[in-house]
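Narrative of activities, Objective 1.

The group set out to show that a structural description can be obtained from nothing but a protein's sequence at a throughput compatible with the screening campaign. Below is one input-output pair from the validation batch, recorded exactly as produced.
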Amino acid sequence: MIAFVFPGQGSQFAGMGKDLAENFSVAREVFEEANEALGFDLASLCFNGPDEDLRLTTNTQPAILTVSIAALRVLQQETGLQPAYAAGHSLGEFSALVCAGTLAFADAVRTVRKRGAFMQEAVPVGVGSMAAMMGLEDGAIDGICAEAAQGEVVSPANFNSPGQVVIAGHASAVDRAIELAKAAGAKRALPLPVSAPFHCSLMKPAGDRLAEVLAAINFAPMQVPVVSNVEALPNADMARVMGLLVQQVSAPVRWDESVIKMSELGVERFIEIGPGKVLSGLIKRIAKGAVIQNVEDVASLKKL
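Output recorded for this entry:
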């Protein structure tokens, strides 16, 4: 059984997708559709950068989504492979929903550009932050966040793999949590270079604004169940998609549980589709023994 998984923010790099667009018309068509939907040359940004523009959340989100769907279309055309399940990390859940056929690509790329803006605008720059914690149990991190809060917000944002959790919240509370984690014996506890505290309650205003955008979209029946970040369970009901995407903005990404659930359901092969191999590295630590492959360019496609 195969699962297709799609990366989130942080996987972007200048040059991503260029190889596929130069070699496959189906990939070029995806970039052209994105350019048309957004009204600017996203393809050029993906292929040429500059990196500082690619790092802007409003650009990062549609760029990664577009490269992921270009790679998906090439994979489908060249191999005919079909997944039993799809899943994505944060932003990648939108790519998974396009893969499942419930969300049209043009709608998805416009929505994630707005989602990026809403998430950036929810908290003024410098007020919030995120930090990675390595080598502590989930329960210990819950306790550290509770102690560090002191009336502010700080909570787990991404459960990425065993012993790797990202926290988010008010910058001062995150700083306190870093010191407490070090004192508790964390292998590493370090701030992340992000522009906003994603996946915590400070993002609630962004979720409310996203709900208004999603309410105008027509979702189609799902051809493949998508394992949601919020529940870490497969969802095949298109009527639930909007609510799960709204919750996802301020809820933690339960990636480790999602991979475990797919493994329990019989998935033995995970194919990461899109730029980079971040998820492949995480899955290797979660689903030991699973076959893990990726498609991001011609070389990785040939290898697959």
